Amino acid sequence: MTIDVEDYFQVEAFASTINRKDWDRLPQRVERNTERILDILAESGAQATFFVLGWIAQRHPSLVRRILADGHELASHGADHIRVDRLSPEAFRADVRQSKRILEDTGGVLVRGYRAPTFSISRDSSWAHNVLLEEGFLYSSSVYPRKHDLYGSPGAPRTAFAPIPGMVEVPLTTVRIFRIDMPASGGGYFRLLPYPVTRGLLNRARRLNRSPAVFYLHPWEIDPEQPRQQSAPWKSRFRHYLNLNRTEPRLRRLLRDFTWTRMDRLFLSDERGPFPVIASWTDRKQASP
After folding, report:
1. Hey, is 4 helix, strand or coil?
2. How many C-beta neighbours within 10 Å does residue 62 have?
3. How far apart are CA 86 and CA 141, in angstroms?
4. pTM of the predicted model, to two decimals?
5. Residue 168: CB atoms within 10 Å
6. First-to-final CA distance of the chain
7. Which of 169, 176, 195 lies closest to 255 in space, CA to CA?
């Protein structure tokens, strides 16, 4: 179970209509929403990995400490939610270095995991894995092996792999059905698809992939009362606001139906490695973890 800790105004869907310079002037709802998710996780006994923006950690240090106090893993979502494929290697290094420093100074723990904003590590930005390893990260969960207009790496491995020695990439979960990579990882699809479909996809992925599923959620997805961005494109508004009122009850069902834990406890254990080093992003012959 993974939570991408960002506020409603930081999403890629609103990047064309909300200026980054205005972020501090907008009503912030991330702390209350994340604490609500923490309460729900505590009720179920589930543990999760929280990929937190450095921007958020600077403004809400008590939230970082609450995440750790509840037994969850603290990981990086970058500093300012800038896509990797829009950064040079040097700028990306500065971004992840800053985020790691902020999180570690705030939480007092070593941060080993990273998730790129908008799953923006792909074939064209695979150099990012070298930078992450050099900056002290041990794993990334930044690849989505399916086609999408905002992200995705069709043909990428569907289970954990080592893009370079010493670095593990854990893709978001998809399952192959009739030559289509179906999403089984949450996010907007969790709100779009009826819950039984999500449950069925997760069960099918478990059987076919023979690997733990990786699920993700944003704090703003349980907040139907968040401010509305009426100037955003219709498609962006549809994606963002669809079924927000259904996320929390569906999350509670999900936590009852499956067992969830932290990324590091599944993918950084010596007992689960070593992961295969692949020569190509389309090498589907790698062994499952």
Report:
1. strand
2. 11
3. 18
4. 0.93
5. 25
6. 17
7. 195
